[in-house]
Design goal:
two-stranded antiparallel sheet, Alpha-Beta Plaits, single chain, 6 strands, 59% helix, alpha+beta
Length: 233
C-alpha cells in the first residue's frame, strides 16, 4: 500500500485509526510513566498511561461528534478543557519538602505532556505526537544528568542577620554579588537578639566550594552587623 494512502487512512476517522491512536497513547504514556516510576515518583506507569489514553479519547470524541452528527462545533473545544484541567491532577503530585525544596514539578509536567501527546494522537497528528514523545523522554533521561551536575555544584544556605543601620543592607547585597553568591530571598523583620535597627532573613545560593562558615565570618567582621548566624532547617 502506498505510504500516503496509508497515512490518509490513519488520519481519517475510522475503527482502525481509532484503535491505533488509543494503543499508541497507552505505549507513549506508559513509557514516560516508567521513567517517572524509576525515580520512585507518585505518578508512574498507570497514571501516565491513563492520562494519555483519556486525552486521546477526548479528541476522538470531539471528532466523533463532528463526523456523526454533522456538527460545526469546534473539535478542539473538548481538548482545551483537558489542557487546563490536567493542572489539578499535576498539582497533586507537587510537594514542598523542607523550606526551599519543591519536588514533583517534573512529574506534574510529565502528566501534562502525556495529555498533550494524547490530544495529538486523538486528532491524528502522529508526527507531532511521536516527536513530542521522543523529546520528552530525551528531556527526562538525558537532561536529568546535566541538571544533577548543575545542582551538585551549588546549595542553599539560610542566614539571619541583624543590622545596626538598615541603610547598610546595600553593603551586604553588594558583598554577595561581588562573591558570586545569589540571593534567593530577602525579608526584613524586627531584631530578636540585639538592639539593632533591623533583622534580615536571607536565603542565598552558593557554590560547593563556598562554605556557610566562611560567609558568616565575613559578615560577623563587618562593623555594621551586630549579629549573624546560619539557620538550620
Amino acid at each position: 500500500m502506498d505510504f500516503s494512502l496509508l497515512m490518509d487512512y490513519l488520519r481519517a476517522f475510522n475503527t482502525g485509526s481509532t484503535m491505533l491512536r488509543l494503543v499508541l497513547a497507552l505505549i507513549f504514556g506508559g513509557l514516560i510513566g516508567l521513567e517517572r516510576e524509576g525515580t520512585t515518583r507518585s505518578a508512574g506507569l498507570r497514571t501516565n498511561s491513563l492520562v494519555c489514553i483519556g486525552a486521546t479519547l477526548v479528541m476522538l470524541t470531539g471528532n466523533y461528534i463532528q463526523v456523526t452528527f454533522m456538527s460545526t462545533a469546534d473539535v478542539a473545544r473538548l481538548g482545551a478543557q483537558v489542557v487546563s484541567g490536567i493542572g489539578f491532577l499535576g498539582a497533586g503530585t507537587i510537594m514542598v519538602s523542607g523550606k526551599h525544596k519543591v519536588i514533583g514539578l517534573t512529574t506534574a509536567a510529565a502528566l501534562w505532556i502525556c495529555s498533550v501527546i494524547g490530544l495529538a494522537l486523538g486528532i491524528g497528528f502522529y508526527e507531532g505526537a511521536i516527536a513530542c514523545w521522543i523529546l520528552s523522554l530525551t528531556t527526562l533521561k538525558v537532561l536529568k544528568v546535566l541538571d544533577k551536575k548543575y545542582r551538585d555544584k551549588c546549595h542553599f544556605v539560610d542566614l539571619y542577620v541583624e543590622l545596626k543601620d538598615p541603610w547598610k543592607l546595600t553593603n551586604i547585597t553588594e558583598y554577595f554579588k561581588d562573591n558570586g553568591i545569589a540571593i534567593v530571598s530577602l525579608t526584613s523583620t524586627q531584631p530578636k537578639l540585639t538592639t539593632s535597627a533591623i533583622g534580615v532573613n536571607l536565603v542565598v545560593k552558593v557554590h560547593r566550594d563556598q562554605s556557610a562558615d566562611s560567609i558568616l565570618r565575613s559578615l560577623v567582621h563587618d562593623e555594621d552587623i551586630a549579629f549573624a548566624h546560619k539557620v538550620y532547617v
